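Format notes (please read before filing issues)

Several people have asked whether sequences and structure tokens are stored in separate files. They are not. Every record keeps both together, in the order shown below: the sequence lines, then the token lines. Line labels are part of the format and must not be stripped during preprocessing.
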Amino acid sequence: MDKKLLKLRVNGDDYELYVEPWHTLQEVLRNEMGLTGTKHGCDSGYCGACTVLIDGKAVKSCLVMARQVQGKEITTIEGLFKNGRLDPLQKSFIAEFAIQCGFCSPGMIMSAKALLMENPHPSVEEIKEGIKGNLCRCTNYKKIVKAIQSAAEKG
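Then the structure lines:
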């Protein structure tokens, strides 16, 4: 098959690129756009390392065909950094030492961002539910939950 024109809105900017019709959003973000914060993990939606926001909802980009997201607003971890400043959630992950090796962190932060956008003051149980699709092999999740609580408290 021939490459097809794809029009995407990513992190507030519009892009036009030619991609293979079978490429996932994850592949396009990483390989075509250089947005490598979206990690390449399991390719089956299990680990959550590739989580991005699509119209404000946490979505595993390895499970979405790139052509399916035309006309939608896509936000990657890179899109949280605005005007030279980290997002409060990113700051909380750093302050609470919730980042170990860092591989899961972008996806975990994006899932937490979607949660806080929907529910600005979640309970611990709601936080655990909000990040349940993200796997971390380095921590016991306590620092991650604390970082999300801290960000919620700071608003």
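For reference, the curators noted about this record: DSSP finds five helices and five strands in the chain. Residues 115 and 130 are 6 Å apart (CA to CA).
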